[in-house]
Amino acid sequence: MTETVAQFSVTYTRCLDPKGAPVLPLPDFAKDTAVVTALYRALVRTRACDAKAIALQRTGRLGTYASSIGQEAVSVGCASAMRPEDVLLPSFREHGAQLLRGVTPLELFLYWGGDERGNVFAGPREDFPNCVPVGSHAPHAVGVALAFKLRREPRVAVCIFGDGATSKGDVAEALNIAGVWRLPAVFVVSNNQWAISVPRARQTTAETLAQKAIAAGLPGEQVDGNDVIAVRAIVGAAIDRARRGEGPSLVEALTYRLGDHTTADDASRYREDAAVTPHWHEEPLLRLRQYLVGTGLWSKQDEDRLLHQTSVEIDAAAEAYLATSPQDPATIVDHTFAELPADLVRQRAAIVPGAPAAAA
Amino acid sequence: MSDITLVQAVNLALARAMQDDARVVVLGEDVGADGGVFRATDGLLKRFGAERVLDTPLAEAVIAGLSVGLAAQGFRPVAEIQFTGFVYPAIDQLANHASRLRTRTRGRLTCPMVLRSPCGGGIHAPEHHSESPEAMFAHIPGLRMVIPSSPKRAYGLLLAAIRNPDPVVFFEPTRLYRASREEVTDDGVAAPLDRCFVVRDGTEVTLIAWGAMVKEALEAADALARDGVSAEVIDVATLKPLDEETILASIKKTGRAVIVHEAPLTGGFGGEIAARIAEHALLSLLAPIERVAGYDAVIPLPRLEQHYFPNAARISDAARRAMAYA
After folding, report:
1. Binding-face residues of A in 267-286 toward B, CB within 8 A
2. Using omega within 30 degrees of 0 as the cis cutoff, is the peptide bond preceding A219 cis?
3. What tens digit of pLDDT does each residue of A113-167 get?
4. Which chain A residues contact residue B92 at CB under 8 A?
């Protein structure tokens, strides 16, 4: 006897087409002009910050930097669906989410400029710093979500990683255990189609990355990751389910990495520019701007004012970054432990001859 | 108070820590109804419930990784990796995250977690059940590496590890789990971390060991005493951060050092101790430093394992060589 014992399907949701025309009745939040224009402002601010970071790097004033150009809607959409008390666990390309949650452009420049103080986060105190070892933060989201569940707090851990991370055991282990324990966690794949030089098709033969959740018993669905309204709606619904105690989800947001992997990368070594060009017509800022302009919610004057405000803010942050005094070299060891053991007290003194031990 | 074994002392310390501090949760494979494969968590599920004693799926990376998340959120997770042979998938989480979170965030997020694991050989276990990878962890900045050598020490050091505000890797020698009993008072008093313990006073040679090798070193000291040689024995207990003062003070007194560990010789933590002695007590040395260690070979299956691990005879031979030198 052979019978079908389980069947699955994966949905894909898009609210605005690439020209900004609604293809679905828009969710309620999108009827609030202030909400939609705030999303647009966040996208523009993210891209301006990104452009400044690249300019600083190209002029030798920032370290290697991972641009988020083209992927801002995933980041901004996720963060806009979160509450302040939720916890974000980002990869290293989620500048948009971090900025919207209160990480400052100055902190962002500091981090990418090689200064740990960029991770201090005056805003979202419990958010995790960027995770560089790909996908290894998915288990942290499990722990954070477990903490919420054990304390019976209506909070959600939101973990964003790239398509490359879905090849890793960390992500599989995290999805699996989050399902078993029905944790308030939402995992978002920002699928930009490239793990540095390896395209999506060479990463897995699975039809979707969303279905990796289904293997773990979680809801998995796709959303147009260049449509910030759709991202907010779908990720928001997943966050709401998690907050209500209905367990974790995975959302695969389909987007495209318009830039190099990082400023140290040269994508022309492995992909044709011609392959990138069509994606510029689908990118998230253009899409939402066309929607806003089309519905009469946004004028040329609004656009100019926003660009000006943003550039004033980002320029000031860059200036503050460049004017930030370096840390005392002794801070290399100061945060290794809550109290420095004798070995580190000695080593600290060797870094700065005569420096007193840090206060415990 | 009755005499208890080392594994019972671990259990006692876990129960005490859980009773004293609601933030302490125990997690790992088979730690719940089964009470752990060595019974270290026996009875904890019944006493503290399923929200504080969490059976995980079989996934070491996520056991370590979720502990990082829990700890950053203010819990005090005590994770069990069933055997040190299976700890390697967890090293990524310890090296890249647990040990660095405080530094990376300048203290905004911290990681007060303990990762426990039964270590070492000598119990005729299957493949991958007898490893001693403590030097790997001792090499990672921001981690503490602790190994108890007796029931009393296990109780006190585990309490200290759980109360410590930073991540601690805590290896428990399987060979000692039920090897002997000792009176342990469940008084909630932690033993000091970051300290070596002189467990036998002597004047002519210092035997430096940790974990199961402390027992072998003490037996060697007995044998040496019968030959009229006075051996001091140091239980290192916390490998990192290392209490070099206690070791150097002993070497300056005895002039001879025999360092003992079960782990392979090359790159073993004995090399670090030998270097400290060479750096700071060279002129006190009367003889070359001796290292008695596992061989740079794969740990054999049980039929040959007794030939692999250092034992009292090998240790006393090394001490006699040092005595014969000068």
Report:
1. none
2. no
3. 999 999 999 999 999 999 999 999 999 999 999 999 999 999 999 999 999 999 9
4. 133, 136, 170
At residue A354 the predicted structure's pLDDT band, cuts being 50, 70 and 90, is low
The answer to whether A257 is a known catalytic residue is yes
Residue that the structure tokens 């998938």 belong to:
B89
CA of B74 vs chain A CAs: smallest distance (Å): 8
Radius of gyration of chain B (CA): 19
pLDDT band of residue A359 (cuts 50, 70, 90) is very low
**Is A110 an interface residue toward B (CB < 8 Å)?**
no
Give which of A236, A204, A206 is closest to A223, Cα–Cα: A236
Residue A360 in this model has a pLDDT that exceeds 70: no
| Average pLDDT over every residue of A195-222 | 97
Strands (E), chain A: 12-13, 87-89, 157-162, 185-191, 194-195, 198-199, 220-224, 249-254
Catalytic residue, from B124, B128, B129, B307: name it: B129
Check if A271 is active-site.
Answer: no
Per DSSP, the residues of A290-326 read HHHHHTTS--HHHHHHHHHHHHHHHHHHHHHHHTPPP
Q: Minimal Cα distance from B165: which residue of A?
A: A338
Q: Calculate how close chain A gets to B99, using CA atoms only, in Å.
A: 8
Interface TM-score (ipTM) > 0.95: yes
Nearest to B69 among A116, A144, A181 (CB): A144
Find the catalytic residue in A270, A305, A308, A335. A270
Q: Which of B205, B222, B202, B200 is nearest to B320 (CA)?
A: B205
Backbone angles phi, psi at A135, to 5 degrees: 75, -5
- Least CB–CB distance from B67: residue in A141, A143, A173: A143
What topology does CATH give the domain A12-327?
Answer: Rossmann fold (3.40.50)
Q: Is the pLDDT of residue A357 over 90?
A: no
Instruction: Report percent pLDDT > 70 for chain A.
Output: 98
Q: Which of residues 48-107 of A touch B (CB under 8 A)?
A: 87, 89
pTM above 0.90, yes or no: yes
CB distance B61–A170 less than 8 Å?
A: yes
Phi, psi of A356 (to 5 degrees): -70, 155
Binary contact (B66, A180; C-beta < 8 A) = no
Show the tokens assigned to A155: 């909070």
User: What pLDDT shows up at residue A259?
Assistant: 95
Q: What is the pLDDT of residues A336-350, one digit of tens each?
A: 999 999 999 999 999
Are the C-beta atoms of residues B215 and B121 closer than 8 Å to each other? no
pLDDT band at A352 (very low <50, low <70, confident <90, very high): confident
Domains of chain B (ranges plus CATH)?
Answer: 3-183 (3.40.50.970), 197-325 (3.40.50.920)
Amino acid found at A359:
A
Strand B238-240, strand B144-146: pairing: antiparallel
pLDDT at B89: 97
| Listed residue (A30, A117, A148) closest to A80, CA to CA | A30
The answer, for A265 touching chain B at a CB cutoff of 8 Å, is no
Segment 93-152 of chain B within 8 Å of chain A by CB? 93, 96-97, 102-110, 141-142
- For chain A, the domains span 12-327, 328-360
Segments of chain B scoring below 50 in pLDDT: none
Coil vs helix vs strand at B240: strand
Rounded (5°) CA angle A249-A80-A188: 30
